[in-house]
Each structure stands twice: as C-alpha cells, then as structure tokens.
UniProtKB/TrEMBL annotation:
Belongs to the LysR transcriptional regulatory family. It comes from Paenibacillus ehimensis. This is LysR family transcriptional regulator. The keyword Transcription regulation applies. Keywords: DNA-binding, Transcription, Transcription regulation. CDD domains: PBP2_LTTR_substrate. Residues 10-62 form the HTH lysR-type domain. InterPro entries: LysR_HTH_N (IPR000847), LysR_subst-bd (IPR005119), WH-like_DNA-bd_sf (IPR036388), WH_DNA-bd_sf (IPR036390).
Length: 301
C-alpha cells in the first residue's frame, strides 16, 4: 500500500474530511473538483476499501476512512516537523494549530497573538474554536498542536500549563442584579438562564449550583456566542454564569452587573498539549510565548 500512496492524496483526504465536501475541499486546496475526485479514487484503490459515504448533506467517513484518518494526520504532522527541522537554522517558520474556547479567546488572546505574529512573521497560527471536550479530542487526534481550555482536564495523556486565573460569576442587567441582591437565589426562579448548552463547562457549573440550591430558573436559553449571552443578560432577558475576563469591560461600563449573593467560582485557563508527542519548533515557540506573557493584558480584579 505504501508504494501507492502520495502525500498530497492524504492532504486532500483530510481537506475533504474537514470540509465534508469534495467541492469545498477543492476550493480550499486550489484544485478543480475532478482532481479531488481522482485523488480520492486512487487513495481508495490503494486502501482497497471505500473511504467516504456520500450523503445529501455532504460526505462522511466510513469505518475504513476513520482508521485512515489517524495515519493521515500523523503523516501530515511528520511532514510539518520535517519541514521545520530543515529550516531550523533560519528564521522560525511553520504552522501551529491552536484550539481555543471562544469566550476566553475573544477577551484575552488577540493582543498576545498579534505580538507573537510580529515577533515571528513566518509562523502561521491557525485557530479554531471549540468547547473543552472538543479541544481535548483535537489535541489527542492531532487536529491541533495544543489547546486553550478553562480548566485542567486531569487527563493522563495531556499536560496542562496554567495560564491565567479567572472566576465564574453570575451577571445580569443592573436592575435584575439588584433584585437578586435583595432576594438571593429565590429570585432565580422567575428568571431565565442563558449559556452555551450542555457541551460547555460554564453551563455545567451553573446547573451544579442550581441543583445545590434546590432551585430552577423559569427557563433556559442556549446561544452560540458570548456576545449573544452578554446581550441577552444586558437586556434584562436572562442571567448568565460567565468568566469575569469575558465581561470585564461591560461590568466597568455598568452595562452588566454582578449578582453578588450567587457567589463566585475560581477557574484557571491553561494550555494543554500531548505528553507523548514532541511539538515542532513553531508550536514550542508559541507555547513558551503565551506562558511567558501570561495573558497579562487581561486583569482580574
């Protein structure tokens, strides 16, 4: 099989997997669609098995395709590491794939990242957003070199390097926050709770606190972005449990207020990486840079 494989076929295979479409993969790689189709046909011939199922909404990996994915990601990673090694004598260059939590990245990542890009213009940082469980899987499966998560996953195969201490706090519009200050947890029974849903650590923390207080809100709402959650809370429509770092500007401006009687919960954002996998030079540089700057641009009161 190895004699029939070409590296570009595996790169195309991963593009089809990630885009879930032959046409979108072709657009991403700068190919015509017939080239992608031809490469995948040759790859299936080399594997001796069907790799993709065509569905109305796109394409999906078969069981054989899922097996190939593991080795394809290893191959591409080795190629990147080899390129970095060949360029080691010159200016640092390469690609670093970073998974982040959207709410934290929006508040804290872009300043340090811009400084890093200015210091290392030949290193490309590719960023994707995801919740903690998705980020852990991305690092394990080589879809990401490292991840930014809101808590130590305490996983045997992953190293966690603390980056920034933060805290979860309940926020609302000033008028609703005053009601909570007067009535405590009982006020929550007539209010909605806004969050990211069951995949999010913040939502799990909120539900745990509600269960501990033996209370339930009047309703729950799930949103895809921190901006929507903040706007829902600022309008008086809902309460939300969020990191202080994500709402520091709104608290300072008086657009949002803390529901003090509901308490706070300390958290620590950090970087995760795979213990058994040596990172490339570019990833090592970004890792050291982020730890060194400590995201000090975000101040936690």
């Amino acid at each position: 099989m190895i004699e029939k494989l070409e590296g570009r076929f595996l790169v195309t295979f991963l593009a089809v997997l990630e885009e879930k479409s032959f046409s979108k993969a072709a657009e991403r790689l700068g190919y015509v669609q017939s080239t992608v189709t031809s490469q995948m046909r040759q790859l299936e011939e080399a594997a001796g098995q069907k790799l993709f199922d065509r569905l109305p909404r796109g394409v999906e990996l078969t069981g054989a395709g899922r097996k190939l994915e593991i080795y394809a990601r290893r191959f591409v990673q080795l190629g990147r590491e080899l390129e970095e090694q060949m360029n080691e004598e010159g200016a640092p260059r390469g690609i670093v794939r970073l998974r982040v939590l959207e709410s934290f990245a929006a508040a804290a990542l872009w300043g340090p990242l811009r400084s890093f890009m200015e210091a290392y213009p030949d290193i490309e940082v590719q960023i994707e957003a995801g919740f903690q469980a998705e980020t852990l899987e991305a690092v394990r499966s080589r879809q990401a070199d490292m991840g930014l998560v809101p808590a130590d996953p305490c996983a045997a195969d992953l190293a966690f390097d603390p980056l920034l201490e933060d805290e979860l706090l309940w926020i609302a519009a000033p008028r609703e926050a005053e009601a909570v200050c007067r009535e405590g947890w009982s006020a929550v029974r007539r209010m909605r709770i806004a969050g990211f849903g069951e995949r999010c650590m913040y939502s799990h923390a909120a539900e745990a606190q509600l269960a501990a207080q033996r209370t339930a809100p009047a309703g729950r709402a799930e949103f895809a972005s921190m901006d929507m959650i903040k706007r829902a809370a600022g309008s008086g429509w809902a309460l939300a449990l969020v990191p202080r770092s994500a709402v520091a500007a709104e608290l300072a401006a008086g657009v949002l207020a803390e529901c003090v009687p509901l308490g706070r919960q300390p958290i620590c954002h950090g970087l995760i990486r795979h213990k058994q996998r040596e990172a490339g030079r570019a990833a090592q540089l970004l890792h050291r840079y982020l730890l060194g700057c400590g995201m000090k641009e975000v101040m936690i009161e």
